[in-house]
């Protein structure tokens, strides 16, 4: 992927991977779990701009230094990542909630911080972690295992592995976690690590007796956090996410992660249901041609895109089903282009990715329909747009349902006043991703046991 201005926590394996086309879908090991509201709910937080801490500033400053100023100009701080509190060894830690990777890890006291771009040792504060993990009496370290992970934006972490007592949303398990002692990381000043909710095939534990075993994707395939919850805490094999955007009325944003059910939020009564699809790693590693379940990949049938004429004089409620966003000049708008484009395409559903990444041509179409159009900035290699532009009406077709993206989610403020980042960007040859921009508009059910995902539109909130 090109320069990531918003954090992108996808395990690195996605680069060069090919989604299986056609029939291969996740093997259902049980019937779909019911969409029942559960009490095992974890409240998620985002970091609003107003609470930017000095350590966060240090993280941003580091980007500016590393990237000669370009990246800081594009870094967004609003609602960029979703965090939750999980207790390890009796102490609560804030962690990033990521459906695009499978390891759960914590940065350990005394870790070494290195620059993601130069690999050289830098002051610990530049990694901008929250409180660091101190090994507790309940940690059982496992000799001979090494934790070593890279994410798609070149952040890398390594260390040891051990079993630790973890408590999440009222459920307690003993879980294999990575204990990080070297980190190349763009921290947020609050989180101490990451909670990976993906499949075991993309975990990053290695047996360091067999150094040749490092070649990806050979890993130990240990039981990751969510699978342990199902097996040891006995919850139904599904979890669901309802991410909430940051708005002036709700400056903290946040959301809910429900384990074994759905959260108590308003949503459409109808769900789109689609199978989770397998990924072939053949292009990344010829010995791994057998497709396996790694990310939450679904087939998107296509996209609906319509430019909104800000001078429009009629209220066309058919073409503008979304409630007008506060302050957005759409009340009188008319759609000037209304077409279905860009599908079918396989997309990763990833809470650890902020934006939506589409094929270059689909991204170009969407960006051309902002008024005025978003422009592709060479150098940072991203679409930027005037913050006072009118966003197109953009919808994603999944399983026969059309999910609109609220206009509020179509742009993100950058460090440069008046210049926004379009939230629909080019995948640049990589797999397409539905990140938080999409997830903020739906209740997303990850029914791992049945090998399917279900989506229901959120009521306007
Ligand atoms: C970085 O900044 C220096 C000084 O302004 C400039 O000469 C150089 O071309 C820049 N490098 C890049 C990659 O932009
Ligand atoms: C992590 O794994 C890569 C290969 O995947 C290897 O090149 C690198 O040396 C490892 N890093 C550490 C710190 O062991
Ligand atoms: C990651 O590092 C590689 C090699 O240094 C570089 O080619 C690539 O552009 C980097 N990717 C990002 C997202 O910075
Ligand atoms: C190293 O790998 C070989 C071949 O895969 C295997 O037979 C051996 O048991 C491994 N050694 C250890 C210590 O796991
Ligand atoms: C919007 O529509 C209303 C009534 O349909 C009209 O009175 C008003 O002038 C219109 N506003 C603009 C900016 O066109
Ligand atoms: C954005 O558009 C507004 C209104 O059209 C204009 O006043 C402003 O100069 C533009 N900002 C930038 C950064 O181009």
UniProtKB/TrEMBL annotation:
What keyword terms does UniProt attach to this protein?
Aspartyl protease, Hydrolase, Protease, Signal
- Please identify the protein, giving its name as recorded: Acid protease
Q: Which GO molecular function terms does the record list?
A: aspartic-type endopeptidase activity
Residues at the active site: 98, 350
Signal peptide residues are 1-19
Question: Looking at the record, which segments are called Disordered?
Answer: 311-335
- Asked whether the keyword Signal is assigned, the reply is yes
- UniProt key word Signal: yes
